[in-house]
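Input structure tokens:
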């Protein structure tokens, strides 16, 4: 039962992260593009702040639940006298997730900080340039997230 709860938390956190990126990249961004730069950039700062904080919490849940599930399987294998070999799909999922986390860290702790400062200073050209880099990084992370999900379910 506990393993099922961990798996549920893990998948729910991934859904929040990947689904949020999909929504922001494919629906929010095109709609916001119709707004004037000051309004658009203020909106994106207001939306991204809470979203990035929610993703940070999701990442903690993903790491803790994933490590716990791997540890539980390894412990069960050892208790039965067997060896634990992590399935290829799990290894690929973990690697993809770690790359995504690194990209997220850059978005959250460098790019978003720069965007927020540009908007506070009403530096719309810098804000627009920073938003373009964030858009690219989110696009890369979205593709990695979808590929990682595909690996988990198809490999």
């Amino acid at each position: 039962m506990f393993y099922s709860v961990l798996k549920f938390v893990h998948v729910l956190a991934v859904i929040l992260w990947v689904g949020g990126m999909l929504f922001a990249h494919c629906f929010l961004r095109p709609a916001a593009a119709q707004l004037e730069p000051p309004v658009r950039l203020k909106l994106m700062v207001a939306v991204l702040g809470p979203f990035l904080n929610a993703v940070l919490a999701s990442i903690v849940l993903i790491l803790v639940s994933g490590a716990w599930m791997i540890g539980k399987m390894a412990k069960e294998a050892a208790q039965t006298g067997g060896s634990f070999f992590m399935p290829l799909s799990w290894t690929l999922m973990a690697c993809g997730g770690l790359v995504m986390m690194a990209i997220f860290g850059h978005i959250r702790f460098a790019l978003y900080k720069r965007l927020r400062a540009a908007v506070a200073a009403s530096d719309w050209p810098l804000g627009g340039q920073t938003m373009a880099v964030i858009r690219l990084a989110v696009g890369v992370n979205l593709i990695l997230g979808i590929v990682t999900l595909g690996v988990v379910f198809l490999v």
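The radius of gyration is 18 Å. The chain has four helices and no strands.
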